[in-house]
Amino acid sequence: MIRVLLADDQALVRAGFRALLDAQPDIEVAGEAADGEEALRRVRELRPDVVLMDIRMPVLDGLAATRRITSDAEPADVKVVMLTTFELDEYVFEAIRAGASGFLVKDAEPDELLRAVRTVVDGDALLSPGVTRRLIAEFAARSKEPAAAGALARLTEREREVMALVGIGLSNEEIARRLVVSPLTAKTHVSRTMVKLGARDRAQLVVLAYESGLVRPGWLG
C-alpha cells in the first residue's frame, strides 16, 4: 500500500485529492497538512511514501519544506511531488534542485496524478512529459553558468551518453531505442550513473546534467 501525505493550504483541493487517492486499491491518504511546517511534522510522524506538496503555502512554503524533508536523514525514502497552478512556475526548477522527484500542475487529469504517485514510489521521476522538459530547459537557461564537469570523470563514455539522454527527458524505453539496447540495460546504466554521482533520483540526475554542462537548454531530442 502506497501511503500519501497531502500538503496544500486549500481544504477543497485536499478533499478532491483524498477522494481520488483513497478510491485506489493500492493507495491510501495517510494524512493532510495545511502549511509547510505542518507537512514537516506529519512526515516525521506518519512516514508516508509520497508527499504531494503545494509550492505556495503559508508559514513555510513548499520549496523550503521540500528542501528540509529531502535533506532529513529520518525518514530517508519519502518522495516529494510538487504541485503548482501554473506550468511555468518560477520555483519549479529550484524545487527539483531541492530534491523533489517531480511536479504536476493542479489541473492534471486524475490518471496523471495516480501515475505520478506510482512512478515516484517505483524510484523514477516525473521527467518524461513534454511540459516537464520545457520547464527544465526554461529554468536551466536562467541558472548560473555550468559548473566544472569534474564529477563526470567518474563515468564511462556510455554512462555519459545515457546521462545526456536522461537530461533531455527521455525515459528508459526511449533511451533503449536510441542506443539499441534493452530497457533493462538502459535502466542499469541510469542506476549506476546515479550511484556514481550521488544523485537522489532521476530528477537530480537531470539537474546535474545541466549544471555540469553535459546538456544545455534547447537540446531536447
UniProtKB/TrEMBL annotation:
Entry-linked CDD domains: LuxR_C_like, REC_NarL-like
Record-linked InterPro entries: CheY-like_superfamily, NreC/VraR/RcsB-like_REC, Sig_transdc_resp-reg_C-effctor, Sig_transdc_resp-reg_receiver, Tscrpt_reg_LuxR_C, WalR-like
Gene3D superfamilies in UniProt: 3.40.50.2300
Record keyword Secreted present: no
Domain HTH luxR-type: start-end pairs: 148-213
Positions bearing 4-aspartylphosphate: 54
All copies of domain Response regulatory, residue ranges: 3-121
Pfam families, A to Z: GerE, Response_reg
Protein name from the UniProt record: Response regulator transcription factor
The organism of origin for this protein: Streptomyces rameus
